[in-house]
Structure formats: structure tokens, C-alpha cells
Amino acid sequence: MKIGIIFGTRPEAIKMAPLYKKLIENNIDTKIISTGQHKEMLDQVLNVFEIIPDYNLNIMKKGQSLCELTSRLLNELDKILKKERFDLILVHGDTSTTMTASLAGFYNKIPIGHVEAGLRTKDIYDPYPEELNRRITSNIANYHFAPTELAKQNLIKENIPEKNIIITGNTVIDSIKWIKENKSENIKMIQNNLNLKKQKYILMTMHRRENWGTPIENVMKAVKKYTSEKNIKVIFPIHLNPIVRENVKKIIKNDTNIILTEPLEYLEFISLMDGCHYIMTDSGGIQEEAQYLKKTILILRKTTERPEAIKNGTAILVGTEEDKVYNAMKELEKNMYKNIIKDKNPFGDGFASEKIVDFILKSK
Ligand code: UD1
Ligand code: UDP
């Protein structure tokens, strides 16, 4: 059996790395095709997991549009799929790489396994274009590896046959567990070097397309106001997307309590998450990791496809209006420890990759 794992962005690589390692451990012939939808941000992940892709399609162009990205991805992936003749392709989540890899697989009549299947907000423009990407992928995929029961139910409602849906937990929990277990010394070193234990700080990220412009600017205004009143720092590693950087830097100039950095290596980012007071983000993966690290999250979005974290008492859907964000920060200052953090992580137990590989081996 020959498997092709296709990914292209930072979060896909983080979430597919443990699955790749598990497939190799089980002597399954597996190749990685990186589309290179991301470049520097992808390298930062591959280094930590010591993964060298078999192919790198080097797709990324600065400021790429969705249409040009999609057409380049389809054309380049088709060439590899014709050459390699995989028995199964594994894709992850909801990016342009995910959707086009599924489509290219379908055109080449190769079965698709979709990891992190079944997440839904039901609003096609939120997150944009991810909600449509994952719906298209669900329509094409043969096997659906759902992280939670809710994700499975979403798929059943869309008439996906139940026998093809396997609840596995999210592979990101495998990743963060691996990092915490194997790199704890590095984490301590990073925290010591940055003097993190001695200061209280909030960690922040924001990059989603539907938040470009006014929403990011509003959130930055709230953060600026709050940190200028309180003696607390916000650390914000900014995504390399030029639009995001422009939006942030329009509001944040010389604010001493707001530390803007380049995107961090995965290990560094985990070290910062591990030591922070709480997290503000519109990222998907960070919400799941935060649950493992028992950190509270302010979700800077209108909708969420991960209501499990809200139900568990660790995440608050705050939106992007300036007043709401500012008030939520103030509220958290008082009520932080009232948040219930249950021991059972709704996003998984760290054995998602094992469950996926078991399924693949059984259905060989
Ligand atoms: C993509 C995904 C999104 C995911 C996010 C994770 C799509 C449509 N979007 O959004 O679902 O949440 O990745 O981060 O698939 N850039 C660099 N270097 C990098 C990475 C990006 O310079 O290593 C810059 C480039 O100018 C690039 C731009 O960011 O054109 C946008 O990258 P793109 O992958 O199109 O979109 P993201 O916003 O990163
Ligand atoms: N991350 C990282 N460095 C950073 C910011 C985030 O390694 O500077 C990691 C983070 O731990 C998480 C993933 O990147 O696993 C999330 O990626 P992103 O927010 O770009 O995408 P999303 O999850 O929203 O699709």
C-alpha cells in the first residue's frame, strides 16, 4: 500500500506530522507532498518534527489570491499524482491545499482520507473560504476522520455514510503531547531565556480573511487601550500575510506593552502558550492546543466550529467589536479562575494518529 500525505500550510503540517510518523513506524510506504502554500511558516514546523517532504511544489507567491492559488495547486498536484499512483491520499482540514488535493485525487480516481473532518459553522463565508473547502472535501472523501462526536453528527446530517466516519480525536493533541513529552528541556530553556516565568503576559494571534481590515483594527484598538491602562504585556507573533501585518501596524505604533514578533517556531510558540496568562486568537489549532495546556481563550470571531471548548468552559466567543473585546479582557482579569477546565479534553487523548493508522491497516 502506498500513501500520499498532502499538506501546504503551517497548521496542516503540525497536525499531519504525528500521523506521518505513525505510518512510517508501521512500515507503510508513505510520501509527503508539500504544496508549499506556505514557505517560511511551514519550514518552522518541519524543522521541529525533522520531516523532509518528498516533494515541494513551491506554490507560494507573495500576496497570492485564492483563484490563482487554487489553479496553480490543481495543475501541480495533478503531475505528482499521475507519477506516483498512490492507493490512498490523506489530506487535512480546510485549506486551499486540502480542497485542491481532494479534487485532484478525485480526478485521478484515488481514494481520499480526510483528517479533521466534519467541522462546521454553517456560514459559508465564516470562516472564509475554509467552510466551503471542508464541505467540498467531505463530498469527495472516502474516509472521514472526525475529531469529535459533534463533527461526526455534522457529517451524518450531510448524508455521509456512518460506516465511513471514524472518531479519532484531533491529531494536534498528538503533536503537542509529543512536544511536551520529548522537548520539555527545550521548553524550559526557551522560557528561561525569554524570562517568561517572571512576567505576566497575554498571547495573541489573528489572521483569518474574514477578520481583515476593520475587525483586526478594532481588536488592536481594544488591546491598545487595555494594555495602556494595565501593567500587562501582549505578545503577538504576526502572520506573514502582508494584509494582516498592515492592519496590525496601522493601529500599533510605539505601544510598549504590545510586543509584535515574527511568526515563531512551533516549539517557541508552545513555550509561550505554556507560560501565558491567557490567549486571544482567531486560530483554529490554538484553541485545541490551549485545551491541552489548560489555558483560557478569547475567540476573536463571530462563529466557531469548535463549540466543544466553549462548552468545556475554557473558551469565550467574544467577536471583534472594540468594546466587547476590551470588556472581555477586563472581565477575565477578575473572573479568570472561575472558568471550569475539565480534565477530559474534548479534542482528544493524543492517540488520534494511532486510531487512523489502525483503521487504514484494517481496511487494506
Ligand atoms: C492559510 C489558509 C487558512 C489557514 C492559514 C494558516 C487558505 C485559503 N487559507 O491562510 O485556512 O488558517 O493558512 O496560517 O488555504 N506568507 C508568507 N510566508 C509564509 C506563509 C504566508 O510570506 O510562510 C504570506 C504570503 O504573502 C502569502 C500570504 O501570506 O501569499 C497568504 O498565504 P495563504 O496561504 O494564501 O493564506 P493564509 O492567510 O496564510
Ligand atoms: N503557531 C506557531 N507559531 C506562531 C503561531 C502559531 O507555531 O507564531 C502554531 C500554533 O501552535 C498552532 C498553529 O500554528 O498549532 C496554528 O496555525 P494558524 O493559526 O496559522 O492556523 P489555523 O489553526 O487557524 O488554521
UniProtKB/TrEMBL annotation:
Protein origin, superkingdom: Bacteria
Isomerase as UniProt keyword: yes
Protein name from the UniProt record: UDP-N-acetylglucosamine 2-epimerase (non-hydrolyzing)
Leading EC class: isomerase
Keywords per UniProt: Isomerase
UDP-N-acetylglucosamine 2-epimerase domain segment(s): 25-360
Record-listed E.C. numbers: 5.1.3.14
Family of the protein in this entry: Belongs to the UDP-N-acetylglucosamine 2-epimerase family.
